[in-house]
Structures are given as structure tokens and as C-alpha cells.
Design a protein that fits this description.
A hairpin with a 5-residue loop joins strand 18 and strand 19. By secondary structure, the protein is an alpha/beta fold. The strands form four sheets. It has an eight-stranded mixed sheet with strand order 12-11-10-13-14-15-16-17, with helices on both faces. 48% of the residues lie in helices and 12% in strands. The longest helix is centred in the C-terminal third of the chain and has 21 residues. Helix 3 crosses helix 4. It starts with a strand and ends in a 6-residue tail after the last helix. The protein has 30 helices and 19 strands. The structure holds 3-hydroxybutanoyl-coenzyme A and 1,4-dihydronicotinamide adenine dinucleotide. 1,4-dihydronicotinamide adenine dinucleotide binds next to helix 14 and helix 17.
Length: 685
């Protein structure tokens, strides 16, 4: 069946697209639309045209899988022009999400109506692109510069009511069917004398032409968001062209900027991440008919840093939570922190007071393990000690109802050892949340040797429900993320002993695009994690810092000195401590360039990633990219560690590791997968 069908209803032509799953504007869709519009233009009896979609959404954009392939006409810009130039009024009738090229098609239409639940946006920037089918020129003319800039540069969609407010929609359909309302609307406008043409409008951009500083102000306000990324800057330049140039020239500028971005590495990287994120949810070897385990109540053990944050995920999604602690004071503290976090969100206007109370009402705090009996899933987040974890699993096994899932939030420990303490190892799984657990989107799902397909499939579905991006990992110390972090931390410490300063090491990574370097991160997390004064023996730089009261940002000093606004500056005291350790190490001291620091920190991570792949700990290289992007701030515009390695060349990485062999030490071994792929000129992805 054709993806585009048409139907004449009186003197109105209704064009319907049906291209599941998201009505992407692939070649067949474009060709069908162009043909239908040409027919409407040439048929005197047709007085108006409606474009709408079947299935779950209006056009969700250009077909991303076509990027990088030879173009086959009609092009999207030509299609949008043809719609706009149609002598009959064309109405876009929108449901679901009108995104990217989909919204550009709608902007080519003379009128736009939508259901109340619709969302409209130009998310191209998230793919390292800009709207390339006239969106940067038509949206400012329709919705004004300020809103267009925000939508195009952030890529965030707006609701139907906001779209109506800014002039992007002509009507929001509150009751009745969209198809019927569109017919009624079309009949109304068919009688009108003239119709608005987006590209001819100047009313909404006139003001910006007189106040060009709106762009500079926007750039200043969004400096952090823009750092390192090419696309947002190009987006701003294109919107500026909408103000400075006539439409035809603005479109030319948009095209030039789009072509440059689409063929660049950043956009390739971000398109890779789009598909990688969707791929991550797919688990190899799980039959499609595997049943899900219903999850109606979640139990959480431990109300500390992680337990409280984990609980919030479920409460926010409307799932009741039983929270168990070993002592009343810790329980009270945990509950108070949850409430404080919700109230802070409410104070920022992102939650109502009623929603805060509704979430808190779903929480049952208790000191009794027995209260976990009727939970469908229990997640333990107690201290990171195997003996305690084992004891917890034995107790849970005895209490929690049969069929329920038992999970651990451990960062490093062996899930299989915990499972072996129970009579239901198939029900045991790792759910490694990241801190702060209510905010960080990553969830490592640790598949034990005996974890059942049902349990895996259930926790993956649950992750989606609470808004997490889940990645499956096999069992090994630190799983995917922390295992790769280890070599980076080790090299960062060694660099200090060889003459590099913490600030140089951090700068090398922030220049690369990380939000912070290892020492800034350590100061933020607190240097005294797992440290006690009683057991401290002045044997590492970190221990000495803690002994001197330099325990990170919270104490006003750590590796760095902090001012009242928590802005860090290099510390002479830290430098003196490092110098003492360096002298004791006997290592020769020298200067390091940013490039050399990056090679020393990042290449060993790639090597560890390759081992993780060859051991089957990660299902695919792109899963590793998703972990590092969402859990550790790896810059999106490089596509993640494994994609980045592909772009710089595996041979470059291998040669770098061999060059640094002496510094990496005798224990460092090169992954055979990295070696073989590099020698064969192959990639990870
Ligand atoms: N092209 C090709 N495939 C697409 C696609 C697109 N634009 N959008 C989604 N898909 C695919 C996904 O890869 C996925 O495939 P899979 O099932 O094989 O994994 C499938 O459609 C379903 O997608 P989701 O799992 O993401 O479904 P959701 O319901 O969660 O979300 C959505 C739907 C909000 C539409 C989301 O898919 C989305 O944000 N899509 C991308 C929108 C976008 O970026 N549009 C701009 C494209 S660039 C452009 O238009 C350039 C133009 O300016 C010239
Ligand atoms: P925490 O020390 O803040 O909280 C642990 C809580 O568990 C305490 O409130 C303690 O009273 C309680 N507890 C201890 N034994 C218990 C028992 N037998 N029964 C009931 N409650 C008990 O520790 P945190 O940081 O929340 O870590 C918990 C787990 O999460 C650890 O396994 C840790 O490795 C893991 N994790 C920690 C991350 C972090 O950044 N803090 C990140 C990811 C995982």
C-alpha cells in the first residue's frame, strides 16, 4: 500500500500519510506528498487541502537513515516550497509530535491546527544539525525571533497551547476528532480571500531587525549550552540571516550551513548517539514473547544518598515505595531529604504542591524488613560491603514473595555472589543507578549468570517508565562505566607524580568537552568517601588532603581552594603535598601538553572498553558510548568514547598506547580486539 493516500471530501482534498512508526519524511512520503499537492494545484474543483497523518504521530522529521546517502528527489526544501506555493490553502492537521522536517512541512502550509496533546519542535540541533528545510527562515517569521531562537537552538518542543500563544498554531482542537475539525476549518478558510504565506511575512521579524542585540544577548545567556558544539552556533547564524537577508538569500545561507553540518563529524557522532540510545534498549537473546512481571510496589533498602534518590524515581512515576532502614534517625533523614528535594523542585515551578504531597503519600517508611514481603521488586542500596550485601540477600530471599525481583545497586561487587545466597538466583539482577539517582538518566542493568529473561525484560521496561536510559552490562568489577573510569583515575594520579598539576589534568579534559576533570569531580563528590580518620595512614595524596581537613567543596577546600560561591582556584598547599609525594616516588618531573594528558587518560579507557567488548560484558560498542555520555559527561559531539576512537582511528589509539607503554606500566595490557581491529583498519562501530 502507498504511504500517501488522498481522499476528496466535497471540494477538499485530504492527504494522509501512513509511514510507521513515526511518519518520517522518507523519499516515498515526499514523492507522494509532492504529487498530491501538484494534483490539488491543478484541479479547479479543489478549494482547500488538508495534510494529516495516520498512526501515532504527525511527521517526526526527515528520515535520519537517509542522511549520508545519495539524495533522491523531491528534496524536503522543494516539497515545502511546493506546499507553500500551492494556490489552494493547505492546512496541517497535527497530532503527536510535529518535529524537524515535520514542523517545516507544517510551516510551509498556510494554516496549522493541532490537538491539545500535540508537541511541536525543531530538534535538529540534537542531531548536530539545523533545520534544513526552511525552518530557520519560516519559524522566526511565524513565531517571532525570541521563541524561534529558543526552539531552534535548544531543540526543545513546545506544547500546543504555547504554540497557539506564539502564533505557530492557528487553532487547538479541544473536542471532536482532528479529522472532522480539520474539514470544518478547511471549509472556513477556503472562502477567505487570501492566505498567510510564511516566507512572505515580515511582521514578526521587524522588531529584531531594529534590535540586532537580541542575538548577542541570547549568545551570552546560553554560553554554557553552546560550548564545543558547532550546530547551535550555526542555528543562531541562520536565524540571524532570517532577519538580515531577504527570504531567498536566507534559505541559501541555511542550506550552506546545513550541508556543512550534515557532512561533519559532530553530526555523524550525534546521529550515531540517536540510534545508539534506541539500540541500547534491545537485549540479545531474549525471545519476543518473554512475559513481563507486573510491578505494582517497589521496596528499597537503605535510605542514604542512593536509596532516597532511587525511591524518588518510582514515587514520581506514581509507584508506591516501601523504604526500609536499620535505624530511625537514618530513616527520618532519608525521608526528609526526599521531601526537601521535591519541595525544591516545586519552588522552581516544576511541580505543584499537590504533586509533592501525592508523591510523598506513596512512600511508606519503615524499620521492618517484613514490610517488604508484598513488593514486586526490592532494590538494596546499603553499604558497599559484600558481607552486608550477602546478609541482606539471604534475609530478602526469606521474606519477599515468590516471583518478585531482588536487585542490588552495587557499584563494583559481584551480583552472582549475592544471587548465590538466595534460592532464586534467576530473580537477581543489578540495577546500578548513578548519583544523584533522581536526576541522572543512566541505569546500568547488570545481567547475572542466571538472571532470567523475564526479569531482564521487566527491568528494562521499568527503566523506560521512570525515564531512564538503561544499558545492559555483564558481571565484572565496576561493570561498564566504573571499570572504564578506573584506568582514567589511575593515570590521573600517576600524572600528578610525574609533574602535571591537578588543574592541568582537569583543563585537558574540560577542553575536550567534559563538564569537569577528575580532580574537580573528586572535590565535588567529597574526598572523604570511604575514608576514616582512624584508618588514614598518610599514604596517598588524597588521604593527606583529608587529614588536613581538605575534604572537597563541602569543606571549602580539597584539591582546589573554594570561595563562597564554590568557585575553585589552584591551591599552593595541594601543590606542596603533591611535590612531596612526587619527590618520594623518584619519578622524573616534566611538563605535559594537553594532548599528551588526553592520550594518557583517554586511550587506556578505550583499551578497557575494547576488553569489555571482547569479553562480552557490553553487547555492543554503542552501548559503551551511551554509558559514558549519560553517566560521566563524555561530550556528545564526539559520539562517546568508542565512536570517538573510530573517528580518530584505532591505529592512532594503538600507536599512542604503545608510545606510552613505559608510563602505563608493566601491568597494562593492550586489548587483543583493539589490536586486531586497528591492524586490520577496522572500527568498533
Ligand atoms: N528518521 C528515521 N527513523 C526514526 C526517526 C526519524 N526522524 N524518528 C524515529 N525513528 C525511528 C527510531 O529509530 C525507532 O526505530 P526502532 O524502533 O527501529 O528503534 C522508531 O522510529 C521509534 O522511535 P522511538 O523509539 O524514538 O519512539 P518514541 O515514541 O519514543 O519517540 C519521537 C518518537 C519523539 C518521534 C522520537 O523518535 C524522535 O524524537 N525522533 C526524532 C525526531 C527528530 O530528530 N526529527 C528531526 C530529524 S532531522 C530533520 O528533520 C532535518 C530537516 O530539518 C531537514
Ligand atoms: P549511604 O551510606 O549514603 O547509604 C547507605 C544506607 O544504608 C545508610 O543510610 C545505612 O543506614 C543503610 N543501611 C546499611 N545497612 C543496612 C541494612 N542492613 N539494612 C537497612 N539499611 C541499611 O550509601 P550510598 O552512597 O547510598 O550507597 C549505597 C549503595 O549504592 C552502595 O552499594 C554504593 O556502592 C552504591 N552506589 C553509590 C553511589 C554514590 O555515588 N554514592 C553511586 C552508585 C551506586
Amino acid at each position: 500500500m502507498s504511504v500517501i493516500t488522498t481522499q476528496r471530501i466535497g471540494d477538499i482534498l485530504v492527504i494522509v500519510s501512513n509511514n510507521p512508526p513515526v511518519n518520517a519524511l522518507g523519499q516515498a512520503v515526499r514523492a507522494g506528498l509532492a504529487e498530491a499537492i501538484a494534483h490539488a494545484a491543478g484541479e479547479a474543483a479543489i478549494k482547500a487541502v488538508i495534510i494529516r497523518c495516520d498512526g501515532r504521530t504527525f511527521f517526526a522529521g526527515a528520515d535520519i537513515t537517509e542522511f549520508g546517502k545519495p539524495p533522491v528527489g523531491p528534496s524536503l526544501p522543494d516539497l515545502v516550497d511546493a506546499i507553500e506555493q500551492c494556490p489552494k490553502p493547505v492546512i496541517a492537521a497535527i497530532h503527536g509530535t510535529a518535529l524537524g522536517g515535520g514542523l517545516e512541512v507544517a510551516l510551509g502550509c498556510h494554516y496549522r491546527i493541532a490537538v491539545g496533546s500535540a508537541k511541536l519542535g525543531l530538534p535538529e540541533v540534537k542531531l548536530g544539525l539545523l533545520p534544513g528545510a526552511g525552518g530557520t527562515q519560516r519559524l522566526p517569521r511565524v513565531a517571532g525571533i525570541a521563541d524561534a531562537l529558543t526552539m531552534i537552538v535548544t531543540g526543545e518542543a513546545v506544547t500546543a497551547s504555547k504554540a497557539l500563544e506564539i502564533g505557530l498554531l492557528d487553532r487547538v482542537v479541544q473536542t471532536g476528532s482532528l479529522a472532522d475539525e480539520a474539514l470544518e476549518f478547511a471549509a472556513e478558510v477556503a472562502r477567505a480571500a487570501g492566505h498567510p504565506v510564511s516566507s512572505l511575512r515580515t511582521d514578526r521579524i521587524a522588531e529584531a531587525a531594529n534590535h540586532p542585540q537580541v542575538f548577542d544577548k541570547f549568545i551570552a545567556e546560553n554560553a554554557r549550552r553552546l560550548k564545543g558544539f558547532d550546530a547551535p552556533k550555526a542555528c543562531i547564524e541562520a536565524v540571524r540571516a532570517a532577519v538580515d537577508l531577504p527570504f531567498e538569500q536566507g534559505i541559501k545561507r541555511e542550506r550552506e550551513l546545513f550541508m556543512k553540518l550534515v557532512s561533519g563529524t559532530q553530526s555523524r557522532a550525534m546521529r550515531h548517539l540517536f540510534f545508539a540510545e534506541r539500540q541500547a534498549g534491545k537485549i540479545d537473546g531474549i525471545p519476543a514473547d518473554t512475559p513481563l512481571i507486573p510491578i505494582a510496589r517497589v521496596g528499597i533498602l537503605g535510605a542514604g544518598t542512593m536509596g532516597g534518590g532511587i525511591a524518588m524515581n518510582f514515587l514520581s512515576a506514581g509507584l508506591p515505595v516501601t523504604l526500609v532502614e536499620r535505624e530511625q534517625a537514618a530513616l527520618d533523614r532519608g525521608v526528609a531529604t526526599i521531601r526537601k528535594n521535591y519541595e525544591r523542585t516545586a519552588a522552581r515551578g516544576r511541580m505543584t504542591a499537590e504533586q509533592v504531597e501525592a508523591a510523598m503519600a506513596l512512600l511508606t517508611p519503615t524499620l521492618a524488613y517484613e514490610d517488604l514481603a508484598d513488593c514486586d521488586l526490592v532494590i538494596e542500596a546499603v553499604f558497599e560491603l559484600m558481607e552486608i550485601k550477602k546478609d541482606v540477600f539471604r534475609r530478602l530471599d526469606a521474606i519477599v514473595k515468590p516471583g518478585a525481583i531482588l536487585a542490588s545497586n552495587t557499584s563494583y561487587l559481584d551480583i552472582d555472589e549475592m544471587a548465590a545466597e538466595t534460592k532464586r538466583p534467576e530473580a537477581v539482577v543489578g540495577l546500578h543507578f548513578f548519583s544523584p539517582a533522581n536526576i541522572m538518566r543512566l541505569l546500568e542493568v547488570v545481567r547475572g549468570a542466571r538472571t532470567s529473561p523475564s526479569v531482564l525484560k521487566t527491568v528494562m521496561a521499568l527503566a523506560k517508565k521512570i525515564g531512564k536510559i538503561a544499558v545492559v552490562s555483564g558481571v565484572c568489577p565496576g561493570f561498564i562505566g566504573n571499570r572504564m573510569l578506573s584506568p582514567r583515575q589511575r593515570e590521573a594520579q600517576k600524572l600528578l607524580l610525574e609533574g602535571a598539576s591537578p588543574w592541568e589534568v582537569d583543563a585537558a579534559l574540560t577542553e575536550f568537552g567534559f563538564p569537569m576533570g577528575p580532580f574537580q569531580m573528586a572535590d565535588l563528590a567529597g574526598l572523604d568517601l570511604g575514608w576514616t580518620a582512624e584508618t588514614s595512614s598518610s599514604s596517598t595524596i588524597r588521604e593527606v588532603l583529608c587529614e588536613r581537613g581538605r575534604r572537597g567543596q563541602k569543606t571549602g577546600s580539597g584539591f582546589y581552594d573554594y570561595d563562597d560561591n564554590r568557585r575553585g582556584s589552584p591551591s599552593p598547599e595541594t601543590e606542596a603535598i603533591i611535590a612531596e609525594f612526587a619527590a618520594k616516588s623518584g619519578l622524573p618531573q616534566r611538563k605535559f601538553s594537553g594532548d599528551e594528558i588526553r592520550e594518557r587518560l583517554l586511550y587506556p579507557m578505550i583499551n578497557e572498553g575494547a576488553k569489555i567488548l571482547e569479553e562480552g560484558i557490553a553487547q555492543r560498542a554503542s552501548d559503551i558510548d551511551i554509558v559514558w555520555l549519560n553517566g560521566y559527561g563524555w561530550p556528545a559531539f564526539t559520539g562517546g568514547p568508542m565512536f570517538w576512537a573510530d573517528t580518530i582511528g584505532l591505529k592512532t589509539v594503538l600507536d599512542g598506547l604503545r608510545r606510552h607503554a613505559e608510563a602505563l606500566g608493566p601491568d597494562f595490557t593492550i586489548s587483543s580486539l583493539l589490536e586486531s581491529r586497528a591492524e586490520a583498519g577496522e572500527n568498533f562501530n
